[in-house]
Amino acid sequence: MSAHVTHEKMKHPHGDKLCRPMHKLELIKQGLSWPGKQRTLHVSRVPLVFREPYVATGYRPPDKPWSYYLVSVCELHNESVNVWTHLLAFVAVLAQLYRLSGRVHLTQHKDAQTLIGFSVGCLLNTLLSAAAHLLHSKSAWWHYVWFLIDYAGVTYYSFATVLGCVYVSSHPLVYSVIEPCVLPINIALSSFGFLTCCLAKLRFSDPYQPQRQRLMVAGLGVQALVGASPVLARFVHCLHDDHCSLSSLNHISVVFLLLAVCAVTFSAHLPEKLWVGQFDLFGQGHQIFHVVSMVTMVMELEGMYIDIKNGAAQHTSPDLKKMLAAYLVLVIIHVAILVSLKGHIQNKVNDVLEHIKDE
Ligand SMILES: [Zn+2]
Fold it and tell me: Fewest CB atoms within 10 A around its CB: which of 32, 101, 171, 321?
């Protein structure tokens, strides 16, 4: 696939703005790289499939060797901060788990199994996301494959969040009802969320179509609502209990608020939507989403610790081996979905190549 695509009219109202002749500042930004000398491209010189909404510069060219993209982890381009924020999140989750291990014995305390089970989902999510942002520019085929893998990572995180909601922060009565089938239901919801994200990515190839992100948020939102219900029952119970103060649940409210901020920052494309081209390297909405998701993971672990310390998890019986087995089943289902979508991915790639030939 040729990277030398001539100026193409964007389908978005900001298209003309993105494809206007480059100013001096943009030319400097294009050539900006640190510490190496990797050149990056203006949006008008990369195929539509690689374009990020409202991001005008800093694109790495496709069709380079894998080593080029691996080395670009140390270069400055429009994916650098996305890669590093989730690598940082990987370390932050490990550091938080290590910090909590000083308070909850990781091998002896029953609830430590949930802390570990939750952390596994976070670590998979951040690692796969960093890899996807680093390597997706290789070709149209790999762009689709890596971002579908990234979505798999997102659903490992949502799977992990439900584990925390059920095995640590749930209302005892709701827990007793759902406990026998919680892992199969969680696997089914994560698989549904993954399939929805995959179909959204393959159905809406134009990155400017807002339906794509909305469909992804809706697919994952179903799991969030079902998964949060055992915790929401505690809020309902507290409202009807004269001896309970809602402030005693502040550690959970903060996490719910952060999860809502994650959904908004993921889909809003702010602030770059308002000032196109001004946040190409630093400050994109997706970078803010990565930072908020990192804070959310750390706060979820903190919230679980508070519930464990206060005895809110006494009624649960977590089993780390079963959680890890469930992750394995989820991975197998994800691989099966990816393999079954191979033909759709190839069709999308053919469309992209056809589109480039027409230009
Ligand atoms: Zn991301």
Answer: 321
Cβ atoms within 10 Å of 276's Cβ, excluding its own: 19
- Whole-number Å distance, alpha carbon 261 to ligand 1 midpoint, is 15
Calpha distance 263→174 (Å, rounded)? 26
240 three-state secondary structure:
coil
Ligand 1: distance of its center to the CA of 130 in Å? 7
Backbone angles phi, psi at 41, to 5 degrees: -115, 155
CA of 288 to the centre of ligand 1 (A): 10
31-59 pLDDT, tens digit each: 444 444 458 999 999 988 899 889 999 99
Residue-level pLDDT at 99: 96
Q: Ligand 1 centroid vs 61 CA: distance in angstroms? A: 19
Span from the CA of 239 to the centroid of ligand 1 (angstroms): 37
Please give the domain boundaries of the chain with CATH numbers for all domains.
15-72 (no CATH), 76-358 (1.20.1070)
